[in-house]
Amino acid sequence: MKQPGVLELPVLGLLKERDMHGYELRKQLGAMLGPFWQVSWGSLYPTLRRLAKAGAVEKVEMVAPRRRAARGGKATTGRRKTVYRITQQGEDMFALMLEETGAAVDHEHFTLKLAFFRYLGPEARLALLERRRAYLQDKLAQLKTNLREYRERIDSYALSLQNHDLLSTQSDIAWIDELITKERNPNLGPAPEARPTSSP
Amino acid sequence: MKQPGVLELPVLGLLKERDMHGYELRKQLGAMLGPFWQVSWGSLYPTLRRLAKAGAVEKVEMVAPRRRAARGGKATTGRRKTVYRITQQGEDMFALMLEETGAAVDHEHFTLKLAFFRYLGPEARLALLERRRAYLQDKLAQLKTNLREYRERIDSYALSLQNHDLLSTQSDIAWIDELITKERNPNLGPAPEARPTSSP
DNA sequence: TTCGTCATGTAATGGGTTACATGATTAC
DNA sequence: GTAATCATGTAACCCATTACATGACGAA
Questions:
Q1: Could you tell me if B82 and B21 are in contact, meaning their C-beta atoms sit under 8 angstroms apart?
Q2: Of A35, A119, A168, B150, which one's alpha carbon is 20 to 30 angstroms from that of B41?
């Protein structure tokens, strides 16, 4: 299990909340991570199969395919579904993957982990945030160095490109800082709707 | 040639300027796109091989490997290099890949194309910029819809995630708008060193 | 009855990552 | 003389994408 596919973590994370089948999983993924995160079936189902083979999930309910209910009854019939449930082994795997700070620096992995931060302790959260921050800071430094070194030799488009990247990175760092601050004093919430008396 | 690897375009683009060997190519890639863009050898050399097989590039100079110059002479010796030169076919392929607005919407492809914008006519540039803008605008709309629909059901981390993504997307759009504006009236440049009389 | 959504898969393809392997040249 | 950098590749693995294939269910 060198590098589990990206999907393993979010799938297990969603199954922690409740049993789901593939189709549903995909929608929830979109709801949590944003609509742009559209995984393909050819990616999702194999992941489920892999997880099942690894003992991390198990099939719990499948309504038989072409089995029509006895005429008159309608409760037992239904669309063919394969519902998955996370196992204890899967829970352990999830915890390990989530905590591991190894390769969690890049945007995708960090995003995925952040989406399941509620399953991490405060210390682990801060560790991950700091690590991501360090990575971004390093990237920022490299970008600056690179610009200093090549500014003259690249054209205005490449320049604009790197400049924008630099600004984005700075914005990312500011965001991480915000998250870190909130993590350190949870009381200072975003002052959620100071409504004195009336309801919206 | 359904979907040429991402490297084809930048490799050809760099070779348009001058002949280079693999190792150099990698450095120039970093200089142009930013240091984070570190392609692996296992990716670069196969790309070169593919391009050579497709007739898009050709090897022009290779200093023989273990051939030591006759003792005394030192001019003919050198490190083993395999220098590539772009062919006419390669130029054509490059032009096609650069112009094609098909899948050019995602961040990576757009980045790659922008880096070689100087090889495109103003109309094609604007077309690509507009296309990218439309894509981002669509993403923005989807993000907003998604947030409206799921805001209640996702936790604060996922919320923060999507929120930040939303802001980043807006920032990206603003940047594209800037590029579009500059493209439309090139005179309003960033006032690059207004030097009154002296020649370039 | 037909369309859209729900629902689940398989097969081929292909490229990227990682690790491995090798050796020359330069600078200290 | 040895470490760092230059330089080029190969091999295995694996996952994601794409296209293909199938079929039930609900609504119009």
A1: yes
A2: A168
